[in-house]
Amino acid sequence: MNFEDEFLEDLKELLRKRTVKEKEHDNAPFGYGILDGLKCALEISNKYGFNTVNLDNFIGYAEYGEGDDYVGVLGHIDVVPQGNNWDQDPFNPIIKDGKIYARGSLDDKGPILCALYALKLIKDSNIKLSKKVRVIFGTNEESGTADIDHYLKKEKPPILCFTPDAYFPIVTSEKGILTFELIKKFQRSLNGYKIEYIRGGKKSNVVPDYCECKLIYDVDRNVVDDFKDTNLKNRYKIITNVEKNVVVIRSSGKSSHGSTPERGNNAISNMLIYLNKTLRYEDEFSIFLNEFSNIIGFDYTGEKLNINFSDEESGKLTLNLGIINGDTSEIRMRFNVRYPVKANYEKIISNIKERIQDKKFIFEMGNHNPPLHFKKDHKLVLALKKAYEESTGDVAELLSTGGGTYAKLMPNTVAFGPIFDEKHNLCHQANENIELSLLKKCIEIYARAIYELAK
C-alpha cells in the first residue's frame, strides 16, 4: 500500500477544501466551498480509475463494477464550522505525532476516503465482485438532508450500505433526533437598559464554546459594581468590558458534538446563569434568566423539562442548547434532542410544552428524524460483523449512538466506524484529528466489508 505518497496526499488535498455550508448559488446548492470539495473527491475518484457521477452538485459518487443492484458506502465531505481554540489553521492539514489534524479528518473526509481507497485496492487486485459498488460523497450531512433527498429522486437506493461516520464495531441503533426553538418575547421596556444583542453558537448539534452579550444602560447609570464579582466570572468563564454605560459580556466554554453534551461546557448556559446571578433588575429579562435557570440551566439530560427518557437498547436522552440569538424585543434558543429508540416522540413534545406553559415561552418545532434499529441477524449486520472480526480478531459488539448518521436517511444502511474508542472522538471539536494507524486499519476493514457485501 502506497499509503504515505498517495492516500495521505489525496486526503490532505480534500481536507484543504473549506467545505462549510454557505449561501446557495445557482450551481452550488450549499455554497462554493462544498462544491469545490465535491469536485475534489470526484477528481480523486477519477484518478483511481472509477467512473464518477455528479448529481447536479448536490451529491456525487464513484462507481466500480456492473449490474443494476449495488452496494454502497455513504459518507460526507461537508464539515461543521471550525469553531475556536484550534492550535493551527483547521483547513491546513498537518501530520504530527502520528496523527493528521484538520477539520474533517475524522468527520468524515478521512473515513470516506478510506472507503474509496479500499475499493481501489480491490479493483487493483482484480478481485471479482458480483455486485456493483458505489462510494457516495454527501454534501449536506451536517446541516440538512437535501443531498440524500436529491439522490433518492435521481437514483434507487443501495441494496446494502454502510456509512463510516460513527463507531466500530457496528451501530445498529441510532437515537431519534429532533430540534426545536424556545422563544421569549419582551413586551415592556427593560429597567434602565436595553439588550443590543445576545448571540452564541452556530449549530444546534454542537455544544457552543462562545457567547457574547452587549447591554447599553441609561447614560447616568453607574453599572461597574454590578459586574465586579471576580469569583462569579471565573466560575462561569466570563470576561466583561465596561465602558461608561456600555457593557460587553463574553463567555467561553468547550465545544463537543451535540450527541455528547456531557463532554463539553456550554458557553450559552455559562452566559445566562452568570447574568441571572448578576442582574437583579426585576424586569422581563431578569424573569427570563431565572426561568431559564429553572427549566434548562446546565441540564443536558432533559430532567428539568421532564423528558429524561432512557431504554436498554440505546441509553439516555440528551439535550443540547446549541444557538441563542436575541435583543431587547425577543430571544430565540435552538435545542437539539437525541432520544432513545423506544421513547415516544409525541410524549417528548407534549412534556416540553407542558413544562413551559406557565413561563410564556413560545415553542417552535424544527426537524425530526425518527430512531433507527436493525436486528442482530440482519444480513447487512452479519456481513459487517464478519469483516470486522476477521480484520481485528475482536468480537463485533452491536452498539447504539446518539449521533445521527445517513443511516436514518438512506435505506438499508448502518453506521460502521471509524471510531474505535471514545477517547479518539474529536468530532466537532477543536484540533480534530485521527491517527494514521487507524486510517490504515479502516482501509483494511472497509476493503473486507465491501468484499463481503458485494462478493
Defining traits:
elongated, alpha+beta, Aminopeptidase, eight-stranded antiparallel β-sheet, six-stranded mixed β-sheet, 455 residues, 26 strands, Alpha-Beta Plaits, 2 domains
Strand segment count: 26
Taking the sheet with the most strands, its summary is: 8 strands, antiparallel
CATH architecture of the largest domain: 3-Layer(aba) Sandwich
Mean pLDDT: 95
Cα-based radius of gyration, to the nearest Å: 24 Å
Helix fraction by DSSP (H/I, runs of at least 4): 25-40%
Organism: Clostridium uliginosum
Domain Peptidase M20 dimerisation: 249-359
Pfam families: M20_dimer, Peptidase_M20
Cofactor: Zn(2+)
What does this structure look like?
Belongs to the peptidase M20A family. Keywords: Dipeptidase, Hydrolase, Metal-binding, Metalloprotease, Protease, Zinc. The chain has 455 residues and is of the alpha+beta class. The chain folds into two domains: 3-175 and 372-454, 3-Layer(aba) Sandwich (Aminopeptidase); 177-369, Alpha-Beta Plaits. 28% of the residues lie in helices and 29% in strands. It has helices at residues 3-15, 32-47, 109-124, 146-154, 230-235, 267-278, 284-295, 345-356, 379-392, 436-454; strands at 51-55, 59-64, 70-76, 94-96, 99-101, 132-138, 160-163, 166-167, 170-174, 176-185, 193-200, 206-207, 210-217, 238-243, 246-252, 256-257, 310-311, 315-316, 318-326, 330-339, 362-369, 372-373, 398-401, 413-415, 418-419, 433-435. It has an eight-stranded antiparallel sheet with strand order 14-15-13-11-19-20-10-21. Strands 1-2-6-3-7-24 form a six-stranded mixed sheet, sandwiched between helices. Helix 1 packs antiparallel against helix 3 (109-124).
